[in-house]
Sequence to fold (383 residues):
Amino acid sequence: MISPPLSISPQAVAAPASGIAAVMKHGFGRSDIIPLWVGEGDLPTPAVICHAAAAALERGETFYMPQPGIPELRRALAEYHDRVYHGLFGKQFEPGRFFVTGSGMQAIQLAVRVVAGVGDEILVPTPAWPNFSAAVGVAGAHVREVAMQFDPTGWILDLALLEASISPKTRAIFLNSPSNPTGWTAGPLLLQAILDLSRKHGLWIIADEVYGRFTYSKALAAPSLHSLITEEDRVLFVNTFSKNWAMTGWRIGWIEAPVALGPAIENLIQYSTSGVAVFMQRAACTALNDGEAFLTAQMDRCRRGLERVSSVLATSSRIHFAPAGAFYLFFGIDGVTDSDGIRRKIVAGNWRWAGTRASVRHGRRRLLSALLCPRNGGSRDRG
Fold:
């Protein structure tokens, strides 16, 4: 608690404590539990990616670089998107659409700054990753939650409720699909309906596709707005290298935006971090160009993790879940309404798994478990 004489901004005071960090702190270092509380697996970054960073340092690449990212990385991002989404607007992706950021979290912060200001609103379907709402609040804007409903087939977003939530202050819709924490994945028809809604009301969409490659269908990626938008649509894509290539500790991501927004985004990068270290960008190039086999292996491990966790939870009629994407299993237990309390009991009782609360009002009755779990059932192997 800040003492009264230390006057700080209302946004800083209101920034919420992280429930994810709290549960991690509660069980960190315990060798008798499997740590599933944060969004990462147990594998370190592939050696080929690390070697690219080390080689850049050996070459002396330790100086300032252009704010939007080195040309090689922006080009690699465009080529990667061509491979996954088969072009944009009937042609190849332009490198000028991509802006390198100091993490996916910073990409979200910058996207919020682009589309919303003090007093504006952004619609967020919930349950949702809590950091987005916090980023909106720190920017002086407000989140209006749109509660999704759960039934045996999975999570459902009510389009009528989404539209009814739009107010004169609404500037954007935050769309995280596949979703952290629910795994909810919007299909092409729903994506089109949300896009039509944004066009009708002149809203931006911030499309968080961090888990776009973590789909349990046979497709290369989950359905994406990339296949639906036109050059006139107001869509910002935010993403990260953290999940696909086990680079959570590197802190590097990207924004994909209309080329016309380039000067504004570059300025925001300049006045926040002044760019991302070039050795990290060299590593990111290698991840995009040479990391597909590792990503495929990651997906295979997720499928096995999903099978293992689902088979255990399915033995109880009190537990309900419906994973569709991402690498979490978000489940509810009949009769449990305090997920924060129950996860502490799980850790204290030496259960063989640990969950964290969804940290939003409409998710407090459910628990979250990651699927990229350790191979040996024990603590992470960091070697």
